[in-house]
Design a protein that fits this description.
The protein is α+β, with helices and mostly antiparallel strands. It has helices at residues 85-91, 96-106, 112-119, 123-135, 152-165, 169-179, and strands at residues 14-20, 28-34, 37-44, 58-60, 67-69, 74-76, 81-83. Helices cover 35% and strands 19% of the residues.
Amino acid sequence: MSEREGFRDFEIIREERRVPEERGCLGGETTVRIGDGISTIIRVPFCDVCGKMLESNFVICSLCGAKVCYECAIWYPRERVYSCPHCLEDRLEISKKDYKVLLSIYHAVCGISSISEASGMSATEIKKSLNDLLLRGYITKKTLFRRSRLTDEGLYILDLADRLWGNDVDVLSLKIKLRWR
């Protein structure tokens, strides 16, 4: 017996339905009269990144307007705004491969062959990343008596990139390898 079968002798005067809210919209309620009845549609907000139902604790990405739960939101301290991961990835000036090279240098693994062994990247990719990171001022130039290091700007970018990619499986694997060196 269906839920409505027991009501066949009754006239439905009020119906309520919950539906997921569209991306970027905050949710709400619409009540309409249909004949002699009333229908209410409640639009429930969900995180536009992970799909988690949102109660009252969420932020709006300052760049695209997406609803983001606090687990997915990334604080962008330089601009003092919250960002969704998609917008941060678009604005971040490095690739995931650059991030892996930065992470390696942070853990004092600076040689191309050592970075390649730990990350699985090719020597060509590593050389390109090293050159790009040096040009952007994220690392110092390696000298005869000193290995490459991260600059303050490099540490800032490493922190942002870690919030974006730090829990990816390939990065977690790299972190384990770097800690055992």
